[in-house]
């Protein structure tokens, strides 16, 4: 139980710390976000209010994209598999994975892939999450795993 409580606290604290640090460096984003929140006129937001705050969602998605609360992780392979290439010609440099092999991966690096997020993958651009962007809505699929799985899977 303690692990669940600490996981929730640490991921939330990390997200908020990174958000404040980033927002003070991007004052135009801060201003736009402030304008969206000011419609509440000081009252506590309802669920409907939060659902309608699109720019807040873009900012939070961008924060989780650039600064995932869990920047790296490891898994154990549960079955044998073969990865197709390891930098050599296809079919010649296979990677054989056996059950029990530890697989390390970096969410932080995955979230900065230019083939998924574009050439500005490492820049703070909340608008990339808007559905009306020139390149169309961003759909990173498994290229966006801030909590090491689909959004809202992890307790923290």
UniProtKB/TrEMBL annotation:
<dbReference type="InterPro" id="IPR036396">
    <property type="entry name" value="Cyt_P450_sf"/>
</dbReference>
<keyword id="KW-0503">Monooxygenase</keyword>
<keyword id="KW-0408">Iron</keyword>
<dbReference type="GO" id="GO:0004497">
    <property type="term" value="F:monooxygenase activity"/>
</dbReference>
<protein>
    <recommendedName>
        <fullName>Cytochrome P450</fullName>
    </recommendedName>
</protein>
<dbReference type="Pfam" id="PF00067">
    <property type="entry name" value="p450"/>
</dbReference>
<dbReference type="InterPro" id="IPR001128">
    <property type="entry name" value="Cyt_P450"/>
</dbReference>
<comment type="similarity">
    <text>Belongs to the cytochrome P450 family.</text>
</comment>
<keyword id="KW-0349">Heme</keyword>
<dbReference type="GO" id="GO:0020037">
    <property type="term" value="F:heme binding"/>
</dbReference>
<dbReference type="GO" id="GO:0016705">
    <property type="term" value="F:oxidoreductase activity, acting on paired donors, with incorporation or reduction of molecular oxygen"/>
</dbReference>
<keyword id="KW-0479">Metal-binding</keyword>
<dbReference type="GO" id="GO:0005506">
    <property type="term" value="F:iron ion binding"/>
</dbReference>
<keyword id="KW-0560">Oxidoreductase</keyword>
<dbReference type="InterPro" id="IPR047146">
    <property type="entry name" value="Cyt_P450_E_CYP52_fungi"/>
</dbReference>
